[in-house]
Design a protein that fits this description.
By secondary structure, the protein is of the alpha/beta class. It has ten helices and eight strands.
């Protein structure tokens, strides 16, 4: 299996499918690159080289004790991009992966980047603070951490069966297989890694990173996202990024990479070809 080696020796697993202009996919918490399968297969089948990696501590990458924060995640992404010598790349980040992409731009710039995409992404800043009064209360994230320590297998089951895919909404019918895939991927992540990543995605301020975006950017978000609320995430990011185009999926939940994969695939392809 292919890996790149990070500065501290961590091995970062990646999948490399297709030929053409590069597209790099950064996944959400507590998932891994398998969560991008629908998009990776579709885009690779339409003339792109599509690379999806497992964040450190997740999936098949090294479960490091330290480095479970956004600066290191972004530097790992830079190692992947530099090692593979990717140029004119499109970086696409889902949820926590959107934070990883944003911090990459903040720390490493866009010299290798042609386009950016944020999907159901955590930027600009999820946590409610004095200067971010519209954010999500810390008690929500404390609850996730408590659930992880108490019974993380059940936590992942509850998220998959409920808010992540919107399966707690009237008329929702998310397949058992889709929900099981979330649970399976979550348990592949290291316990400490997934626990510390909660702080990384919730308490990292990406506002300065978004101000560094200087290439065409697509922001996609569902307006019924119960994990990263639309006004906290996509709406606020699109308003801050000077080069952004916002697409709102009416009634859509957080996990649109699965629930709205055909619509998302088409929108990504259109943006890549624009």
């Amino acid at each position: 299996m292919p890996y790149v080696t990070a500065a501290d020796g961590a091995e970062i697993f990646y999948k490399d499918w297709g030929l053409g202009r590069p597209v790099v996919l950064s996944h959400g918490w507590p998932l891994n690159s398998d969560s991008w399968e629908a998009q990776q297969l579709f885009l690779a089948s339409h003339g792109f080289r599509v690379i999806a990696h497992d964040r450190r501590g997740h999936g098949r990458s090294t479960q490091t004790w330290t480095g479970n924060e956004m600066n290191t995640y972004a530097d790992d992404l830079a190692t992947l991009i530099d090692t593979l010598d990717l140029r004119d790349a499109t970086l696409i980040g889902f949820s926590t992966g959107g934070g990883e992409v944003a911090r990459y731009v903040g720390r490493h710039g866009t010299s290798r980047v042609a386009q950016l995409v944020l999907v159901s992404a955590v930027p600009p800043f999820m946590l409610r603070t004095d200067d971010n009064p519209g954010g999500v209360p810390v008690e929500v994230f404390d609850g996730i951490r408590a659930g992880s320590l108490a019974d993380r297998s059940q936590l992942y089951r509850d998220l998959a069966d409920g808010p992540f895919f919107g399966n707690n909404r009237p008329g929702a019918d998310v397949s058992q297989g889709t929900r099981d895939a979330f649970w399976r991927q979550g348990l592949q992540a290291g316990h400490r890694n997934a626990y510390e990543c909660v702080a990384a995605f919730s308490a990292t301020d990406f506002r300065p990173d978004l101000d560094a975006f200087d290439v065409p950017t697509l922001v996609v978000h569902g307006d019924d996202d119960q994990v990263v609320p639309f006004d906290v995430g996509g709406q606020a990011s699109a308003a801050r990024i000077k080069t952004a185009t916002l697409k709102v999926y009416a009634g859509a939940p957080h996990g649109i990479t699965d629930t709205h994969k055909d619509q998302l695939n088409a929108d990504l392809l259109d943006f890549l070809n624009s």
